[in-house]
Amino acid sequence: MQREFETADVSPALIEQVRAAAARRMPLRIRGGDSKAALGRPVEGETLDLRAHRGVVHYDPTELVITLRAGTPVAELDAVLEAAGQMLPCEPPAFDGAATIGGAVASGLSGPRRPWAGALRDYVLGCRVITSEGKYVRFGGEVMKNVAGFDVSRLMAGSFGCLGVIAEVSLKVLPKPRAQRSLRIVASATDALARIVAWRREGLPVSGACHVDDALHVRLEGGVSSVESAARSIGGDELHASFWTELREQRLPFFAGPGSLWRVSVPNAGSTGAQPAALPGATMLDWGGAQRWLKSDASAAEIRRIAQAAGGHATCFTPAAGVEPFHPLAAPVLRLHRQLKQQLDPHGIFNPGRMYADL
Amino acid sequence: MSYEYDEKLDGALVSHDRASVAAALRRLVPDLQLLDSREELRPFECDGLSAYRTTPLLVALPERIEQVQALLKYAHEQQIPVVARGAGTGLSGGAMPLEKGILLVMARFNRILDIDADAGIARVQPGVRNLAISHAAAPYGLYYAPDPSSQIACSIGGNVAENAGGVHCLKYGLTVHNILRVEMVTIEGERVTLGSEALDSPGFDLLALFTGSEGMLGVVTEVTVKLLTKPPSAKVLLASFDDVEKAGGAVAKIIGAGVIPGGLEMMDNLAIRAVEDFVKAGYPVDAEAILLCELDGAETDVDEDIACVEGLLREAGATEVRVAQDEAQRQRFWAGRKNAFPAVGRISPDYYCMDGTIPRRELPRVLKGIAQLSTEYGLRVANVFHAGDGNMHPLILFDANLPGEMDRAEALGGRILELCVEVGGSITGEHGVGREKINQMCSQFNSDELTVFHAVKAAFDAQGLLNPGKNVPTLHRCAEFGSMHVHRGALPFPELERF
């Protein structure tokens, strides 16, 4: 039996607060569990707290869709899905139980399975949003395919609350794989990347690939026999599955090292795709090499130059004073961001400046 | 109803003289090919929604991005609407031209620029055909997953504009899940890159917003797609049912058991008989419904899944379950499904293809509703259904030569879509709103929601010059349309022409 969780619809109060703030042109600092408060620029404003707006609205496992209020903890979502043998494959961090699903969607963070299973935004099917005029609107829905109108729900994913208040989300979920194995193979970073490319070409059922402490950590998922045969073919030592939880929750010893924490997103290792020059500091490869975690005291400019030269970008999770957390936008893209913000939040009440100074 | 642009409901457009626009563009972009004579314009009067035709002001066939930029900049300055078009296979009239607008045909951007097999990506121009990407990737054991049934002809630029799907969406996703980067040109003529070859990009997810925006936010000039490793094994099961509801129950059982098929398709008796008569796929013509279930992946996983699904299908009451014994039989089973539309075309002078999506659990209620509506309107409906992802394609059979039948078919189609919305679904799963479903948008979204869409549009194209009249209706149109629907099935003034 499913455990009973707290459930409450406080949308009327949230809408009322947004309306009042809009009338006074009062900026709102939108928060869930505040587990990612350090990610992004500080926001000055009245707090709009989503935590009381929580609970599962609909969940029918055979439909592969779950609809939740934004304040529902990610850990609770995981427990509800687990009880039905399902999962949210992009595995967003739960951050000691504090993270909420609204915050997960707003920040768009995805876990180790991301390159093979898709990002959080790929699982967003619909959402209910409070607009800057205090209207409660719905986009997308609870169906897998829906191309009516613009895809506002996926736009909300990763927008850090700057375009509207995410109050309810519908997510696609999937059955948990029948079998899972995790392995640890001693290898250099270069060797690890070469192996990951070869496994991708062979179609091995990889669902996690992280290089840290001179070893490649691999997760295999799928049917019983395919996972077993892939495990035999790649070799290595047995690794406890909790490694992947520690990785996504940023609790591996690597994260405790000295220096600011950077996330560098770069293209897959490939024949023509440029690989980043050596990053200045301790580096961990995640996402099969497409996500590099870096602990470094090097300047933001230097780290961003390396990321950009490789076709990627760099985000600072623990920025020192004066460091912009997010990578600067190309001029035409920034212009579109400003126009979008101006259109959807003309008075700048939603998390102003959280991502970029004038957004 | 007429699908023609209606300035009273869709917004006023500035009139321009064809000859002077052509002359100005020839001066400005001398090497740009323009078509401006009646005979030359005729082939471009419609897209895949071919019952509706409008002659465009001009047709432009650029070959270089600079030409696209110059043309858009000029159109922006002169307030001339621009409708972008790829292969013109869309079924919702998304590339239907405007009498006062330029039709910008991107078909000549037809080169595959780069395939990086190790990284699993391809960089292609927007006019490249969907299937051509998979063909080019095949020597590397890779393919491009989204496979709309028009994939032999439709182009990737149009796929991005429509967020095209296909029969493998439940497992492999839609276009939005399978592209990494889009280069586009804004109405001001500025080049913008959305997304990147990395798995994410800083800022808002404009790539997701742009995908499926139906040519309203910019013109696609290059696409970077993901390529997947071809699954080593694919097997297909064909199950027959004496009751459509049992077939629906079987789908829920399969998903509930934790199996995600590569493809899961359902057809009803009318569709089965039409198909069997046409392609001799070996379908059981006396079945009320069949399910086609394809399982793909590692060979051993597929065998595990086949055994599991076969048992579930029998438990769900299948009267017969067959596993395709070899590749030839597998192809034959699929040939039936892939030829369902033309097969239905053989048993009726005309047919009208709908594209609603529903939560799967509502299938019995919706099929019953469709059957009732079919009787009410006196038109047969064949049902073809992407059962895995809830995307229905009811095909309404009619004869355009019989007075009133086409209007009845459209009215019936509209009612079916409204039924989909009623049960929590959508008016379009993969064909897009275009011009065809512009009125049904008023059933799915209220004026506050439409206002948000208009705001998004204004952020990219403040003057509304890119593909006006498509995808998002004006509030004025919905006010008119809404008033007609106060009394369902008992419209006031039925003798009046409907828009």
Question: How would you explain this protein's 3D organization?
Answer:
The complex is a heterodimer of chains A (359) and B (499). Chain A has 359 residues and is an alpha+beta fold. Chain A has three domains: 11-175, Uridine Diphospho-n-acetylenolpyruvylglucosamine Reductase, domain 3; 177-249, Alpha-Beta Plaits, CATH 3.30.70; 256-327, 2-Layer Sandwich (Alpha-Beta Plaits), CATH 3.30.70. Chain A is built from eleven helices and 17 strands. In chain A, strands 3-4-8-6-7 form a five-stranded antiparallel beta sheet. A four-stranded antiparallel beta sheet of chain A has the order 11-12-10-13. A four-stranded antiparallel beta sheet of chain A has the order 15-16-14-17, covered by helices on one side. In chain A, β15 and β16 (291-296) form a beta hairpin. The model of chain A has no long low-confidence stretch (mean pLDDT 95). Chain B is α+β, with helices and mostly antiparallel strands and 499 residues long. Chain B has four domains: 7-105, Uridine Diphospho-n-acetylenolpyruvylglucosamine Reductase, domain 2, CATH 3.30.43; 112-229, Uridine Diphospho-n-acetylenolpyruvylglucosamine Reductase, domain 3 (2-Layer Sandwich); 233-343, Alpha-Beta Plaits (2-Layer Sandwich); 344-484, 2-Layer Sandwich (Alpha-Beta Plaits). Chain B has a seven-stranded antiparallel beta sheet with strand order 15-12-14-13-17-18-16, with helices on both faces. In chain B, β8 (179-185) and β9 form a beta hairpin. In chain B, α10 (269-279) crosses α12. Chain B is globular. Chains A and B meet through β7, α6, β9, α7 and α8 of A and β9, α8, α9, α11 and α17 of B.
